[in-house]
Write a structure and sequence with these properties.
Helix 1 packs across helix 8 (about 245-255), helix 3 (about 75-85) crosses helix 7 (about 215-225) and helix 9 packs parallel to helix 12. The protein has helices spanning about 20-45, 50-60, 75-85, 100-110, 130-135, 155-165, 215-225, 245-255, 260-280, 310-320, 350-360, 370-385, and strands at about 65-70, 90-95, 115, 140, 165-170, 180, 185, 190-195, 210-215, 295, 305, 360-365. It has about 400 residues and is an alpha/beta fold. It folds into two domains: about 30-260, Aspartate Aminotransferase, domain 2; about 260-385, Aspartate Aminotransferase, domain 1 (Alpha-Beta Complex). The strands form three sheets. It has a seven-stranded mixed beta sheet with strand order 1-9-8-5-4-2-3, with helices on both faces. A three-stranded antiparallel beta sheet has the order 7-6-10, with no helix packed on it. Strands 11-12 form a two-stranded antiparallel ribbon. The two termini are about 35 Å apart. Helix 6 (about 155-165) links the parallel strand 4 and strand 5. Helix content is about 35%, strand content about 10%. Bound molecules: pyridoxal-5'-phosphate. Pyridoxal-5'-phosphate binds near residues 73, 74 and 145.
């Protein structure tokens, strides 16, 4: 046997475990979604309109802010937030390198310079001390990304921003509903950017995004910028962009937001269960398991482990052979990307980003994932390391081992 996990013969054939299975969620919501889409068709309001207004109110309430402006994507939400800040040529914006491309490309689209900041190895989030070192007279803003569903160190970052007079734009695309000291993502910075891309915790059936803010003036500016700076009709005081959310997306997301809390609780439970299972399997130093901070609510858009860099890709391949989905978010820091070569970074100039990109592996964590599927994932990881003994030992997790739940 070459590291294969065989099902007992009396069970139906196992289909593997998808990294993300959106069909399970859709099956439950099918009728509600069909009805809401029909209402949009009947209304004839296909762009912006009452469904979008309702969505803006829903997200503003959910994210504990006064204002929300919906737009066409999370990437546009970042762009609009930077435009509202007045970012342009000559400006520098601090961004983590270990993030999705859009965090940095929004900066370059306005002719400004992204300055890449390293991460904290435990959280994968932007390093406050590295950010502080990289502030110059040209720095105008910082974009902390709440990566994988866990918030960056917003207390310290806000303090740093205040001292330096720079704007804080949270990239909350992966972290709707995440909390730090009870306060939600998108309510800490000057603005927060959200995405409704289908793989996010609150996803539509296509592209969509939104900017949150507690500042009335910024809200006004955002509202203007996303409709070509037009107010009133055909009068343009500023040059904006066309980034409107369509009513179909808003209608679907308005249905889904009612379930978001329960999905989040399911993600949290799945993450706890993985941690228990990995501890039970004695794998906690063979791989590094994610450890949420006690003052945070992690909403687990991804459950990301570390595997030593010489075994990560082999493990991933072996999981794929068992039809277990996994993904590498992200295989390179943005500072290593060809299009950002002109910025002059070397791969190891951000050592923690470099290391993380070679070690991370994200496992299935979607809400409807079953305990059995998680067992299958963990057992196959255990088997892999039985056949390929770990050549690297991660520090023992500092979290208290989770108590075994009583068999319910
Ligand atoms: C998804 C994502 C975005 C971009 O959102 P889109 O809706 O895909 O444009 C930006 N930042 C991060 C961290 C993301 O995960």
């Amino acid at each position: 046997m070459k590291g294969n996990f065989n099902q007992s013969s009396n069970e139906p054939e196992f289909q593997g475990v998808a990294l993300l299975d959106l069909k399970r969620q859709y099956e439950v919501l099918k009728d509600e979604i069909a009805e809401s889409l029909k209402k949009v068709c009947d209304s004839g309001a296909f762009v912006l309109g009452p469904e979008v207004k309702a969505l803006e109110n829903n997200i503003a309430n959910y994210s504990q802010v006064e204002y929300a402006v919906a737009c066409a994507s999370g990437s546009d939400a970042l762009l609009l937030a930077l435009m509202a800040t007045g970012i342009g040529p000559g400006d520098e914006v601090l961004v983590p390198s270990f993030t999705f491309f859009a965090t940095a490309s929004a900066v370059t689209r306005l002719g400004a310079r992204p300055v890449f900041v390293d991460i904290e190895p435990k959280s994968f989030n932007i390093s406050v001390s590295d950010a502080a070192q990289k502030i110059t007279a040209h720095t105008k803003a910082i974009i902390p990304v709440h990566l994988f569903g866990q918030m960056a160190e917003m207390v310290e970052l806000n303090r740093l921003a205040q001292q330096s007079g720079i704007t804080v734009i949270e990239d909350a695309a992966q972290s709707i509903g995440a909390e730090l000291e009870g306060r939600r993502a998108g309510s800490w910075g000057d603005m927060g950017a959200f995405s409704f891309y289908p793989t996010k915790n609150l996803g539509g059936a296509g592209d969509g995004g939104l900017v949150t803010t507690r500042n009335a003036q910024l809200a006004q500016q955002l509202k203007l910028l996303h409709v070509h700076g037009m107010e009133p009709r055909y009068y343009h005081r500023v040059i904006g962009i066309n980034s409107r959310l369509d009513s179909f997306q808003a209608a679907i997301i308005n249905v889904k937001i009612k379930y978001l809390e329960s999905w989040t609780m399911m993600r949290i439970q799945n993450a706890q269960r993985y941690n228990e299972m990995f501890l039970d399997a004695g794998l906690e130093t063979v791989i590094s398991i994610p450890k949420p901070f006690p003052n945070q609510r992690h909403v687990w858009n991804q459950y990301t482990i570390r595997v030593s860099d010489d075994q990560r890709d082999d493990l991933r391949k072996s999981l794929a052979e068992q039809k277990i989905g996994s993904e590498i978010y992200y295989p390179f820091g943005l500072h290593e990307q060809e299009c950002f070569k002109y910025l002059g970074y070397t791969p190891e100039s951000l050592p923690e980003t470099y290391r993380a990109s070679r070690e991370v592996l994200s496992l299935p964590i979607f809400p409807e994932l079953t305990e059995k599927e998680q067992q299958f994932v963990v057992r196959n990881i255990k088997l892999f390391f039985e056949v390929n003994p770990a050549r690297h030992v991660f520090p023992t997790p500092t979290i208290m081992p989770l108590k075994k739940r009583d068999a319910a």
